[in-house]
Amino acid sequence: MVVDITPTQLRQMRQALEDLRKDGGIVYGLHSSDSALMTCLIVNHQGEHVHFVDGADGGYAMAAVPLKRQRQQA
How far apart are CA 51 and CA 49, in angstroms? Predict the structure, then answer.
């Protein structure tokens, strides 16, 4: 998921995710970025297209690093 949030909201999200992880409810990966990258896949020029949004500096791939680390420790 890509979200646009304030630094305060980011701290709150990190804390909520970490609380859930400590309770054994989830494993998660989180990566923050100051910019995003959008790729548009155009199927045809009559309006069929899909937008992919990710962090410009690694996004989902970088979030996978702590996720994989948590899974190995579980």
Answer: 7
